[in-house]
Amino acid sequence: MASHTPGAPVFAPPADLPEWAQRSVDLASPRLGARTLGASDDFFAEVARMLNPEPAQFVPGKYDTNGKWMDGWESRRKRVAGHDWALVKLGVKGVIRGFDVDTSHFTGNYPPAVSIEATVSLSDEMDALQAASWTEILPASTLGPSSHHLLECTSNDAWTHLRVNIFPDGGIARLRVYGRPVGGLESLSGDQLMDLVAVENGGRAVSWNDASFGSSVSALLLPGRGQNMGDGWETRRRREPGNDWCVLELGAAGSIEKIEVDTAFFKGNYPDRCAIQAAFVTGGTDRSITTQSLFWQTLLPEQKLSMDAVHSFTEQVAQLGPITHVRFNIFPDGGVSRLRLWGKVAR
């Protein structure tokens, strides 16, 4: 008998993210150090796949020793009372705005409902987490087949670990946890040089005029160098006067001493030049801060950029004292992989 050859994979469509998700980062991204710690059962599909950053895929005709291969977490059919669960360690401690519980490609085997609990723990040991005090931050919510489920969280506290409960069993293709990291930089005030805008230190994207390509503006703040041209902030080709920009908030107020602009993988589409404005902001909303940013002081005057390179600036950085926000201007358009703002936390 001829062996069956699996068909071409079918990738899940992206989620239509609401504004609260677009302005957040995925705290459950392995890029930030997130990982699964265990599950009550992952017989059909190992729980670690649930956090993969790539879109979920379905491969027709692909089987393993336990049955149909599925791209996600899938438990066996439960024949006793109870429900299945999985433990997730977030990449960084953070305040959660909501979730994307994605059941893409799970049709007759998706869970009818999900709830999520959270805790703060210094330990990743299963026994310690099982004994921890857990708070429900997403009540039992209905799920459907092969869909993105965008579910908001009302908790204003910061958390380190999640317990994902599915009722009673089934499969989740992907879990995204949208929120804002709480970096705790205030406790590091002194002479230590830190990347004050790094997402793991609490930096975040406040606003931007365009992000037509690439992943998102928040990618500028991710750890490490970009992995490809899609791993960064890239705007459309500008056909009118002006320039593109984004406003970023630092994880803590501090004085900037060194700036790095990385155009990794951007070759025929890197910006010709860049400049940075900055200010110490107290109060206001994201919208009012964006309006004010037009008139902020210059932290870095216009600098020439080149393709696929790390550009480091020290002598060109103005000594403005402590700042909380920057406006990153690129001229006229293009793509940047990473932005680093090295400085010292204000005492």
Automatic annotation (TrEMBL):
Enzyme class, UniProt record, top EC level: hydrolase
GO biological process: allantoin catabolic process; purine nucleobase metabolic process
Pathway assigned to this chain's UniProt record: Nitrogen metabolism; (S)-allantoin degradation; (S)-ureidoglycolate from allantoate (aminidohydrolase route): step 1/1
UniProt keyword annotation of Hydrolase present: yes
Domain Allantoicase: 33-181, 202-345
The reaction(s) this protein catalyses: allantoate + H2O = (S)-ureidoglycolate + urea
Key words, A-Z: Hydrolase, Purine metabolism
InterPro entries: Allantoicase, Allantoicase_dom, Galactose-bd-like_sf
UniProt-listed Enzyme Commission number(s): 3.5.3.4
GO MF term set: allantoicase activity
Gene3D superfamilies: Galactose-binding domain-like
Statement: the UniProt record of this protein carries the keyword Hydrolase: yes
Entry's family note: Belongs to the allantoicase family.
Name listed for the protein in its UniProt record: Probable allantoicase
Source organism of the structure: Zoogloea oleivorans
